[in-house]
Amino acid sequence: MRRKSFQEMACSVAQFLEVAGEWWTxxxxxDAFLGVTRFDDFHERLGISRNVLTxxxxxxxxxxxxxxxxxxxxxxxxxxxxxxxxxxMWPVLNAMRQWGxxxxxxxxxxxxxxxxxxxxxATAVHVCSHCGDPLTxxxxxxxxxxxxxxxxxxxxxxxAAPTA
Length: 164
Known about the structure:
With 164 residues, the chain is mainly α. It has six helices and two strands, in the order ααααββαα. It is globular, with a radius of gyration of 19 Å.
């Protein structure tokens, strides 16, 4: 079944999902962050069918998340590498990993991310870009931005942020 497109929706979350919302996509991006670049390696690691992997890689190239770089002519073979746009997916992927570590990894995290500067396991923490204080959903409120269209915040409370 084909899913609905979010392309016309004036919502940054919807636009992210338009690019990365299919469940294999973030696993491909995860593996690219781990250094996987070759089609056969993605295929073997993920257990994804070749046709679905081809479609997902093409989608990520089309949206500027990956580039395809030839490393062999006959037969043609390519490396798939993250672009700057793709590398900016790190905070999203890392948040997904940290959520999974906390709520879905009863035997402990399957992957430890270490800060190369200090050598310690690292957990990303969201902080205010202005004052540096840690951010939680209770500290935030939403308001219409310059790209908002009518109705995005309609019917929401003035705070318009989760209460978790």
